[in-house]
Design goal:
- The longest helix is centred in the middle third of the chain and has 21 residues, at 38-58.
- The chain is extended and about 50 Å long.
- By secondary structure, the chain is mainly α.
- The protein contains three helices and two strands; from the N terminus they run H-H-H-E-E.
């Protein structure tokens, strides 16, 4: 997780001394990212590349794409940086912290 390591190198450690300032969902994402191996990160990169290539292929003949700005209705902001979205969209389960 290069960003966290870069911040640590500059004296800012988000998980040591500042963890209580982060929402539980964000803190969980950071700790999950730190626990990933190099091979898992490479697998993520391959998946991301495959998705991007698939979109490029699917949209290669498209000149205009119209879509709603959001896939779900607006979510009210919660106090304390704990705003989350729905747990499902169109019947498909989603992570409420990232949609």
């Amino acid at each position: 997780m290069g960003v966290l390591e870069g911040l640590r190198d500059r004296g800012v450690d988000l998980l040591d001394g500042r963890a209580d300032q982060l929402s539980p969902a964000f803190r969980a994402m950071l700790t999950d990212g730190l626990g990933r191996t190099a091979s898992q990160l490479r697998a993520d990169d391959r998946l991301r590349t495959g998705v991007l290539e698939g979109l490029d292929t699917a949209l290669s003949g498209v000149d205009l794409l119209a879509s709603p700005v959001l896939g779900v209705a607006a979510v009210r902001n919660a106090a304390g940086a704990e705003t989350v979205g729905p747990t499902s969209v169109a019947g498909v389960g989603v992570d409420p912290s990232i949609g």
